Amino acid sequence: MNLARLLSETAARNPGKPAVVFEGTPCTYGAFDREVERYAAMLHAAGVGKGDRIAVQLPKRMEFLFLHFASLSVGAVTLPLNADYRPEEVEYFLSDSGASLFVTDGERFARAAGAIRGLRGVRTLLLDGGGGSGADSLFDRLSGAPAGFRRGWPADGDDPAMICYTSGTTGRSKGAVITHRNLVSNMLALHDAWEWTGNDVLLHVLPLFHVHGLNVGTHGSLYAGSTIVMHRKFDPGRAWDALEADGCTLFMGVPTVYQRLMGEWEKRERQPDLRGMRVFISGSAPLSDSLFHRFERATGFRILERYGMTETGMIASNRIDPAQRKAKSVGYPLAGVDIRVAGEDGADVRPGEVGEVRIRGDNVFRGYWGMPGKTAESFVDGWFRSGDLGFLDPEDGGRLYLVGRAKELIITGGYNVYPKETENVLDAHEAVKESAVVGLPDEEYGEKVIAVVVQKEGSAPVPPETLVAHCKRHLASYKCPRQVFIVPDLPRNAMGKIRKNRIVERRRDGTPL
C-alpha cells in the first residue's frame, strides 16, 4: 500500500515508454524511476526518514515530482505548497506542520527568508543553488548522494503520505493528513470508473501543488502507465493545439479553464480535430449548467463532472458513458465510497430532500494535523461531514446533486435559499458568463439575497433589474436577488473556486466589488 512503490512497479513494466513529456522534453518511466531513486538516496543521506515532513514550494517542474515520490519512498510526508504563497503563509505552514525540510527556489526563499528565519529544525534546500544564501543546494546534495541506494518503502497503508492544507477561507488553514491507503484506494477507484489504461495520453495543465493536478491527474496516469503531456502553465490556444497534435485522450480542468477554452474556441478560424479524445473531466468547483451545454454544443463532448475534496480525494463521478452524464450532477459514489445525506438532527433525510452530504470509505483522510478538536467536529459516527448540501435523486439510482455549502445557505424571511439554484438561473441568461449568489445581513429578512455577475465578452450590457426580472420568471420571489452587481471578474482561489467570503466582506465594508 505504499503509493511510490506501486508507481515504481508500473515503471518496471514500461521502462522505455514516455511517462511525462514536460514542455516537449520526454522522460521515460525508467528514467523517471531512476531520478526518484536518486532523490530518495539524497533525502536518506540527509537524515530524512519515516514521518518527517518535507515542504515543497516550487513552480511546476519535474523536480517537484521527483521530490514528491522520493519523499514517499523513504516514508516521509509531502507538504505541497502553492508557489504563490506569501512569506507569512509559508511560515505558518512550516511551523504548523513541524516540517524538517523546506525545498524551494532562490526567488521564493529570498521572499520568505525573513519570515522563516526564526523557525527551528527546518533545513532549506534550494533548487537553483545555495550561493551564500544560508541554504544548501539541492543539486549539490544530489551529487553527494550514495551510489547503490535502494528504497526500503518503510511507510505502509495507514501511514501519512501527504499533508494538504485546506483553502483556509475562515480561520486558520487546516492540514489534512492523507494516508497511502487514501491515495491508493482512490487511485484504483478512478482507474476503474474512467477506464484508464496505458493507451491514454493526459494533457496536464493544472498546478502540481493541488490534489487535482497531483493526486488525481499525475498519480492516476502514472499508475495506469499512461503518458502525461505536461504544460508549465495553462494557455487555452496552446491547449487546443496540443490535444490534437499530441494525440491526447484525457483532459482535466476546472470550470474557469473550460470557460477560457470556450472563449478561445469561438475565436479560432480552425477548430482542432478531437477524434482521438476520450473524455474531458471537470472538478474542484461546480460546473454551471450553461457551460456544460455550451461546451457540448461546440465540441460534441459532454464534460464528465466529478466531486471531491481535499480531505476525501474523489467521492463521486458521472459515468464514463456520455449518455449517462447529466448537467448539475456529480454522479454516483465511486467504488468503496459510501454517501448519505443527513438533516440537522443527523438522521437521513428522505430521498430527494436536501441535507448535508456525509462520506465514509478508505478514501477519507485520517484527520487534521495537530487539531484533534477540529477532527472530532468533522466526524459523526465514523462519517465525515463534508459541509456540502446536496440530495440523492431516488428516480435515477441515487444520483448526487450538490446545491451549495452548508455555510453558504441563505435564510431569508424564514425561507432557505440554496445559492446554486439561483446561480443556475442567472447563468442561463444569454448575457451572463458566471455569477455568485451570497447572503448579506438584513434587518427585515435576516438575510437578503444578492448576486454578483460577470457578463459575457461582446454581449450588450444588461441592466441589473433585467437580471432580477429574469430570475423572477423562473424562481420563487424569495430566491431572487434583491440586488445585482455587475463586475469584471469574481474573486477566486488558486484552483478557481469562487471566494464568496471575499464578496461578503467587501459588501459589508462598502468596498467596491
Kindly describe this structure.
- The strands form five sheets. Strands 1, 2, 10, 11, 12, 13, 14, 15, 16, 17, 18, 20, 21 and 22 form a 14-stranded mixed sheet that branches. Strands 4-3-5-6-7 form a five-stranded parallel sheet, with helices on both faces. The protein has a three-stranded antiparallel sheet with strand order 8-9-19.
- With 513 residues, it is of the alpha/beta class.
- The protein has 15 helices and 27 strands.
- Helix 8 (212-224) links the parallel strand 10 and strand 11 (227-230).
- The model has no long low-confidence stretch (mean pLDDT 93).
Describe the oligomeric state of these chains in a short phrase.
single chain
Distance between the termini: 48 Å
Number of helices: 15
**What is the percentage of strand-forming residues?**
25-35%
Q: Give the helix proportion (percent range).
A: 25-40%
Described by strand count, sense and barrel closure, the largest sheet is:
14 strands, mixed
Low-pLDDT windows of residues: none
Shape: globular
Mean pLDDT equals: 93
Q: What's the gyration radius in Å?
A: 23 Å
Total number of β-strand segments? 27
Class computed from helices, strands and strand pairing: alpha/beta
